[in-house]
Amino acid sequence: MRMQNINMLYFLSPIVMIAFSIGLIAYWKIKKRFTIWALLLSLVAFAGAIALKYVVQYFTAQPFAEVVGGNLVALGLYFGLQTVFFEVGGAYLAAKIAFSYGKIRADDAEGYGLGLAFWENAVLIGGSALLNFIVIYATLAGGGSVAQQLFDSLSVSSPELFSSTFTALQQVGFSVIERVSSLFLHFSWGLLCVFAVAFKKNRFLLLALPMGLADFIVVYTGVLGILNFELLLFALSLLCIIVTLWFTKAERKNASSMSLSISEGSMRLTSLVKTNFKRALSFGSVYLIICIALSLLLGGILNGVASMVTDAESPAIISQSFPLILPLLTVMGSFGGLMVFVSDRTKGVYEYLIAYGVNVSEIFWSTLLTTLGLVTITLGISIIGNIVLLLLMGGTMQLAMFELLLLYTIPISYASIAFMTMAGMIWSSITRRIPGVNSPIGIATLLGIGPCLVVLILSSFFTGSSFLLLVGGVTLILAVLVVAMLVVANKSMNRERLLSEA
Predict the structure, then answer these.
(1) C-beta atoms surrounding 174 within 10 Å
(2) What are the Cα distances from residue 143, in Å, to 140, 147, 302, 395, 396?
(3) With DSSP H G I counted as helix, E B as strand and the rest as coil, what are the percentages for the chain, rounded to 5?
(4) Least C-beta-crowded within 10 Å: which of 51, 134, 145, 400?
(5) Please, what's the largest Cα pairwise distance for the chain?
(6) In whole angstroms, how far apart are CA 468 and each of 105, 173, 410, 459, 465?
(7) What long-range pairs does 277-282 form, CB within 8 A, spacing at least 24?
């Protein structure tokens, strides 16, 4: 078969998912209520559920399938019950913890449900699909032996990618319908979980839990056919949202009046994040510039070496070095957030903020979010810049490089630097200032690069899906530690720890 590129209409599916999800959140933010706490809480609940499902399925999916002999009912229950316990149950647990600390209230229920849908539809499914299509399209457009190998593989595994316009539009339509179904389901059980906590009515949780069994029918896709499957899933999700809205009519009307007032806290946090981010760009500008410059220099050198070697496998191997090393450099680019924190504590800024009602958690959250913003800038410029350099130097984009960027570089960078930031803030708060030890570029640096080095050292013992399990495990551990430190900082950290030593 003559090599051709994929049908560009497939790009519509992830673009529509992402645009619709972001637009829906923007509408809720402007017209109703959508807070940063709802977004962050939904991320914790969703990411934790997906990580747990991945670990469970990694160890049990194949043995379970062998035991049941391909029985669809058993397989459906296997996947459906995981969604019930991990996604719905996890959403309830996260909402209960957050509500007990006053971080969400009853009228955050709709935003929480939208947040759960956003992380699945716009980020996990839409974002990964868009990146995957970009990589495939660019690789096939570049030609060469790698493109031919990719084309031969896709022709067997995903021949629909090269289909006609009519078939492509059908597939895009099915995909969009499935994401709408996902939106209805996540919105429904997210809202019910928050109401179950806020109004202390367990019947809402009992309504939410069976909704996770929608994944029961996924194993019947081949039996039903794609059209019947999507229509059945949409009907079930529509039924779920109708039931949810019907049984929560009274509670939705009374949500605002029965909630704790935390609007001022949300406004303070937003203001702190904006202010600290601007200051962090100034404080850490030198480190940010050096980090980006080193990453681009590294990418240029690796691309140059790859273009000079004659071994067919060498360019692919060399291209994987950049994603593996980038998290170590990103640690440097994120110093600005911690520098602002230590400077403000030393100068007595937090004495002023605490006197005006700002609590400890808002101070820690603002620094954490500021640092993650710096990570986003560093990763974005470094990755895009490296791709541009690669194309300018006549190189070809290797699929392995993009897989590493998506599955290793990005998650491990965010997780390790979040861990570094929280540990650095707590360390700086409970010890006397010793230059070079508890400063942002002292011990915190070791905490940031430590997890990355652990993964790199252990990577020689883990290959393929085992490496993904290693990365996922380390990322999950770091995320749990960050959440634990946030809880400790908010509940146990004395305000005196944040006062100036002067």
Answers:
(1) 16
(2) 5, 5, 21, 11, 8
(3) 85, 0, 15
(4) 145
(5) 76
(6) 36, 31, 13, 10, 5
(7) 277/369, 277/370, 277/373, 277/374, 279/336, 279/340, 280/336, 280/337, 280/339, 280/340, 280/370, 280/371, 280/373, 280/374, 281/336, 281/374, 282/336
Using alpha carbons, list the distances in angstroms from residue 268 to 160, 276, 279: 50, 12, 16
> C-alpha angle 62/65/67, rounded to 5°?
110
What's the rounded Cα separation, in Å, for the pair 301 and 305?
Answer: 6
Among candidates 491, 363, 493, which has minimal Cα distance to 429? 493
Predicted local confidence at residue 496, as pLDDT: 52
Helices of type H across 320-359: 321-333, 335-347, 349-355
The mean pLDDT value for 212-230 works out to 89
Which of 148, 144, 133 has its CA nearest to residue 7?
Answer: 133
Specify whether the CB–CB gap between 36 and 197 falls below 8 A: no
User: What is the average pLDDT value for the chain, to the nearest integer?
Assistant: 81
Instruction: Out of 112-116, 261-265, 349-353, give the one with best mean pLDDT.
Output: 112-116
Could you give the residue ranges of the DSSP H alpha helices within 393-464? 399-404, 410-430, 443-458
- Using CB atoms within 10 Å of the CB of residue 59, give its burial: 0 to 12 exposed, 13 to 18 middle, 19+ buried: exposed
Residue 30 burial class via C-beta count within 10 angstroms: exposed 0-12, middle 13-18, buried 19 and up = exposed
The Cα-based distances of 213 to 226, 496, 499 in angstroms read 19, 49, 51
- Check: CB of residue 186 under 8 Å from CB of residue 111: no
Q: What letter represents residue 416's amino acid?
A: S
Q: Give the whole-angstrom CA distance, residue 193 versus residue 187.
A: 10
Structure token pair of residue 205:
């949780």
Residue in this structure with the two tokens 């670990």, named with its chain if needed: 55
pLDDT of residue 58: 84
Calculate ∠ Cα 211-216-219, nearest 5°.
150
In angstroms, the CA 306 to CA 494 distance is 54
Please give the structure tokens belonging to residue 312: 């067919």
> Residue 81 corresponds to which tokens in the numbers above?
């019950």
Determine contact, residues 336/467, Cβ cutoff 8 Å.
no
CA distance 93 to 87: 10
Closest by CA to 36, choosing from 194, 262, 188, 200, is 262
3-state secondary structure 57-126: HHHHHHHHHHHHCCCHHHHHHHHHHHHHHHHHHHHHHHHHHHHHCCCCCHHHHHHHHHHHHHHHHHHHHH
